[in-house]
Amino acid sequence: MTSFAEIPNTITNEQQLDDVLTSPSPKLVEFVRALKGDILILGAGGKMGPSLAVLAKRAIEAAGSSSSVIAVSRFSDAASRRWLDERGVITHSANLLDRTAVQQIPDAENVLYMVGTKFGTSQNPSFTWAINTIASGQVMERFATSRFVALSTGNIYPFVPTNSGGATEAGPVEPVGEYANAALGRERMFQYFSHRNNTPVTLMRLNYAVDLRYGVLTDIGLRVLSGEPVDVRNGYLNCIWQGDANDAIIRALAVAESPPTLLNLTGPETLSVRNIAERFGELLDRPVRFTGEEAESALLSNSAKCCEQLGVPSVTSDTMIRWTANWLANDGRLLNKPTHFEVRDGKF
Prior knowledge:
It holds the Pfam family Epimerase. InterPro entries: Epimerase_deHydtase, NAD(P)-bd_dom_sf. This is Epimerase. About 40% of the residues lie in helices and about 15% in strands. By secondary structure, the protein is α/β, with parallel strands linked by helices. It has a domain at about 15-210 and about 240-265 and about 300-310: 3-Layer(aba) Sandwich (Rossmann fold). Strands 3-2-1-4-5-7-12 form a seven-stranded parallel β-sheet, sandwiched between helices. A two-stranded antiparallel sheet has the order 6-15. A two-stranded parallel ribbon has the order 8-11. Helix 6 runs parallel beside helix 7 (about 175-195) and helix 10 packs across helix 12 (about 315-330). The longest helix has 21 residues, at about 175-195. The protein starts with 13 loop residues before the first helix and ends in a 19-residue tail after the last helix. The relative contact order is 0.15.
């Protein structure tokens, strides 16, 4: 297995990719060694959930702990459930909108809440609201004595000037569109039940986790590779390697409080879409075309507080771009789930 400290020059296949994504850092191993109780991951069947569960399992094994990792999802993808089962993660199928099913989920002292829906919101907004609010409330009632880390999104912030360094946790929220408003509704449910039951919570507002099979860098790189113009109207962004994001999510259990701790989960840099595309052009030996002009504002988050409390991400933006370029050039498997990073009207 790859040591977390060994960041490879390239990632050449899915087995290596999954290994890199799920290799625990020494900090994570040390943290889970001292952690009491099992880790329950709700929404474990999504894009981040499977690697999060296996990362937690590998950290527990490396620490010599007897704790279990329990992954809960509807598991509409049987292959995802099998992948977890084969790696020692306990799987449990449940629909979190079903109150009876929620009551039957195994107890756990530590809960990582990864549940949410984004794409398709414009077509079915009521479902997005139900998943992002009703499910959250039912889970918080069921696990009132547990410790939570709940994933949120930077979409709840207003667009900020591109030279501002990004929105901070102390600033205002100003969600644009149905999805962002529903995501803020999810936060409000966690805040309400945290206050009511004194449940410790960390709310992590994520901006663009990167896995070579999907992500904002993959979206930009694909356009360069195929000769399509890159839209630069939403001209700046933040992103973070998914392995670093998952590592931080687990360790954020340590800073959970009531009322909830707020952390922006992303990389420390404000990245230019134009510069990213030009770097892909160099690496892929392709001419780069652009459409639009950069707006003076963008959806940006300042991760200084998260970096101070949990550490700076280990994988740099240039490393992520190099890995992605190599992956695309060698026809690496893709999930075909675009991020729609260029959207400015909140319609997903």
